[in-house]
Each structure stands twice: as C-alpha cells, then as structure tokens.
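ugh ok fine here u go
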Amino acid sequence: MTGLIITGTDTDIGKTVVASMLTLALNGCYFKPIQCGIEPETDVDTVKRLTGLGDDRVLPTPIVLSQPRSPHLAAELDNVTIDVDQLAPPSGSLIVEGAGGLMVPIDRHTLYIDVFARWQKPVVLVAKSELGTLNHTLLSLEALAARNIKVLGVVLVGDDNPDNAKTIAEMGHANILGRVPKLPQINPVVLLKVFADHFKPSDFGGFS
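structure:
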C-alpha cells in the first residue's frame, strides 16, 4: 500500500478531520489535489492548524479555486482548465483527500471516482454514523466496487450507532475502521487519542 485516499459520502462529512488524524497517527503526509473555496481557510490551512504539522508533512495543493463549488464549476468560474492527468499524487506515504463525494465532477467529463480508479490507492470512506447514512454509504461502496477500487474500510463520524455500523459492514461488505466522535475541540493530542481509543493500527499495517 502506498498511501490512502480519503473520500466521503457527502461534503462537510468530516473528511479533513479524519485525514488530519490519519496523517498524524500514520506518520504520513497530507495532499489535496484540488481546493475549492479559500474562505475562511483552505483545507491545507485546516490540517496544519489541527495537526501542528508544517510544510514538510502538509503538501501544497496544486489547483486552488476561489469558489466553494464543485471543481468543474469552480474551475469554470475562475477560468481555469483542470488537467486531470496532472492531478496524480506524488510518490510517498500520502493521505490524499478528495473534494466532496465520489461522484463530484472534476470537469465536464471526469468524476473524482474516475481518478481514484486511475491512482490505484486504497480508499477510506468517511460517513456519518447517524440517520441517513445507510443509503449514502451503501451507494458509495457499490460505486467503488463497480470500478474495482479497493476499500480499506469505513470511518464513521458522530455518535455511536452500533446497528448502522453493523449494517454497513454486513451489507456493504466493508470493514468498519473506527469512529470519530463529536469533538468539542480538536488538536494533535485529541486526534491521537481518538485514533488510540477507536481504531486499530493493524488495520493500517500496510501503509507506507
């Protein structure tokens, strides 16, 4: 395994917090290929703030678009042409965070899930733990399976909901990697404690 892709069942699902946690816990480097929206801060800025890591571990984003829209529209509004072939992550132990969900368009012809299939890195799917998660999560897992994309597992975000976790694992044929509870504050100590309390390092044993 040479890195991981962090994606979600929706936007604002908790991907950046999960990516921050895994970057710290797995001693990896964070990389986001496309940033849509720069206010109040970019995801790179957020990861640096949450982890305390610097430029050596939080890599610059090659395409930064001003509007908080889907990449295809944000690029059009900024008069930018996204070259999908140049989005491939650099080599190394990377935590690669996508934008929005799997079916988010990068341009008028390409979805994020299409480039995930090209990159051939295992996916960590971030989903909420609460009501409504089953439909979104099972659909996302089905889409990944249809493209033969390896799924390392699902990370649930929110309050504990054992039946949702059980249903996703059984019906989605997916490993539940762990859960990130609601956090009143987030800093490196908190993120590492969440990983220690709710995750098994052995599930990420092939990360390099």
